[in-house]
Every structure is written in structure tokens, then in C-alpha cells.
Amino acid sequence: MFETIEWTSAGVVRLLDQRRLPAEEVYVECRDAAAVAQAIRSMQIRGAPAIGVAGAMGLALAAQSIGARSFEEFYAELSRHGEALRRTRPTAVNLAWGIERMQRCAQQHKTLPIAELVQALIREAQQIREEDIRDNRAIGAYGQGLIPDGAAVLTHCNAGALATAGYGTALGVIRAAHAAGTRLSVWAGETRPFLQGARLTAWELQQDGIPVTLITDNMAGHLMQRGEIDLVIVGADRIARNGDVANKIGTYTLAVLAQAHGLPFYVAAPLSTLDLSLRDGEAIPIEERDPKEVTDWAGVRTAPVGVRARNPVFDVTPYRYITALITDRGIVRPPYDAGLAALAGPAVAL
Predict the structure, then answer these.
(1) Each residue's pLDDT expressed in tens, for the chain with a length of 350 residues
(2) Can you cite a GO biological process for this protein (predicted)?
(3) 19 marked among binding-site residues
(4) Is residue 101 part of an annotated ligand binding site?
(5) Does 207 appear as a known binding residue?
(6) DSSP secondary structure string, 96-150?
């Protein structure tokens, strides 16, 4: 398993540059929180769980550079870096979750000397990474039984090892089923405009020897109509209390299509993706990125000069289109509000 992100013995954050895949496997080193923020903003690292880990490690880097004489000074500076990291990607709640967990860790160790507090924060960031991999494997273990033998599975964007610290959420379920001997094949939607499905998901599945066929996003309905898709599994960037799910743009379309064709639609995500502070998906902030990601590709303009473009990068799928949520603590079926609250407990709420 390749390393998506890690804390090295030299005290830097090393991450796989996902903009260069699949042509090149290039790793970059971030030596301060600003470099991590830029890596998140530019999508060198992406995926809700992965940027949660990156945010935590970014704060650990910040902690190493803070020259404070008191905890109050230290915490104020740490919080400033945390807010800068939080602003890089507003939709994925894991980023805020990772930052707030690091801030809680600092508060819990406030009586330590600053040097020891910094080490505690580094250990916490490393622990968050290890927990994410463990949680993803738990998602796979819970969800693998939902894939029947011989199934053709459609997935969207990239919810694999690249979107996490390792193993993956939606692809973690697929990996676990494949490892258990389930015969399956995967349809990977290309996921315009950034092509995470084409560049990343297809690459990951090839690495594991899992049969994968790439399709354009607008082919899914045709294949469902022909009976060539048996179920859909996607990841999530934020899940509201009622089960509404924000995920990569196009997810809502697939959910509506799946319901129209009587197909199960599953969402796989750790409970760190849950935002119990939101009653429903209406309040989930939807990030809009540079329209050039729509009008251009790889530095080449593909649209007429002067044409306007929109680039919302997430949409919200209402809970009524979701068959089940696959989490690291079990499978949740409707009604989601009661089931998610019971699994999560108060510690997961932001």
C-alpha cells in the first residue's frame, strides 16, 4: 500500500502529489503549516479523511515553529494556524474535525512544558493517521457483505486510499470484498472536471488487480438501464444529522438514477465525516473552485474564450435516496438521525 501522507522521522509531512497521478508518483515534503494549506488548496492532497489527517499534521508542523513563552501565547498562535488550514476547503468536515481534535489535545496537555506539548501534538497527529487507516478497514469489513458475488459496482470520484490515510472508504468496501473472494467488477466514473475517477480510482484499482472499466459521467444512466450496474458505492465529505450527504458533484445525479432503476445506493464514510451540528444538508457549505478547471484541461483551453462557467465541486444527496451508510462502527439504515446519533455519541459532534 502506497503512503498517501505520513509524518517522517525528520519532522516533515510527506505526501503523494495526486495532481501528478497516474503519469508520475511524486512525493512532496511540507515543512510548515502554510505548505500543508497550499497542498490542500491545490489538491496535491484531497479526499475528506486525507485532508483531516493533513490538517492535523499541519498543526503539528506549526507547533514545532511556535516560539511562545506561555501556553496562552502558544494556543493563540496554534489557533491562528488552525483557522488558516480550516479555510482551505470548506465542505469536508473532516478537516475541521482534525484541527479541533488537535486543539483539544493542546488543551488537555496545557500544563506541560512547551517542548513536551509539541511532542504530544505530533503524537496526536500520527495517531489520527493510524486511526483513519484502522477505521477504513473497519468500514470495509462492515460493508463487504453488501456486495453480492458477481456484482458490477459503480463508484464516483475517488474514495480510496488516496482520499484517506490508507485503504479507503468506498474503495475500502470494494477492496475488502475482493480480498474475501467475492467476484466483482467496478465501473469508475471519470468525475469531471478534475477527473479523480479517471486518474486516481482507475489507477488504484489497477494496483490491486481489481477489474475496472472507466466511463464518462454521463454514461451511468445508460448502463443502469441495460442492467449492467448492480449497485453504487460512494464516499462522503460531510453527513448531516438526518443522513443528507455532501459528496463530489454528480453524486446526487447517480443517487436519483439508482433509485429510478431500483439499485442500492451506499455511502461509505468514517464517523469523523458526520456533522451532528447540522440538521440537514441545506446548511452544508458548497465549495466553488476556479472556473478554469471547467474551461481548461492540463493547461489547454477547451471552451470558447469569454464563455462563463460554474464549478461547484460538491452536491448534496438527500437521505431518502440512500440505502444505507457504511461507517467504521457499523451499517446505519433509515431513520438516519437516530442511528447516527446512537453510533456517534457526543464526541463526534462539532
Answers:
(1) 678 999 998 999 999 999 999 999 999 999 999 999 999 999 999 999 999 999 999 999 999 999 888 999 999 999 999 999 999 998 889 999 999 999 999 999 999 999 999 999 999 999 999 999 999 999 999 999 999 999 999 999 999 999 999 999 999 999 999 999 999 999 999 999 999 999 999 999 999 999 999 999 999 999 999 999 999 999 999 999 999 999 999 999 999 999 999 999 999 999 999 999 999 999 999 999 999 999 998 889 999 999 999 999 999 999 999 999 999 999 999 999 999 999 886 543 32
(2) L-methionine salvage from methylthioadenosine
(3) no
(4) no
(5) no
(6) HHHHHHHHHHHHHTTTS-HHHHHHHHHHHHHHHHHHHHHHHHHHHHHHGGGS-TT
Known binding residue 248? Answer is yes
129 annotated ligand-binding residue: no
The CATH superfamily label for domain 144-348 reads Translation initiation factor eif-2b; domain 2 (3.40.50.10470)
Q: Do residues 166 and 132 make contact, with C-beta atoms less than 8 angstroms apart?
A: yes
Q: Using CB atoms within 10 A of its CB, is residue 66 exposed (0-12), middle (13-18) or buried (19+)?
A: middle
DSSP three-state, residue 21:
coil
- Annotated binding residue at 47? yes
The 8-class DSSP code of residue 303 comes to: S
Cα–Cα distances in Å, from 198 out to 85, 96, 342?
A: 28, 28, 37
Cell numbers 456517534 label which residue? 344
Q: Is 237 a catalytic residue?
A: yes
Known binder of ligand: residue 89?
yes
Residue 21: CB partners within 8 Å, gap ≥ 6?
A: 162, 199, 200, 203
DSSP for residue 334? S
Nearest one of 51, 127, 46 to 96, comparing CA atoms? 51
Nearest to 178 by CA among 198, 158, 208: 208
Of 237, 244, 275, 328, catalytic: 237
Q: Quick one: cell of 50?
A: 486525507
Interatomic CA distance for residues 22 and 35, integer angstroms = 23
Domain boundaries, the chain: 5-138, 144-348
Give me 102's grid cell: 488537535
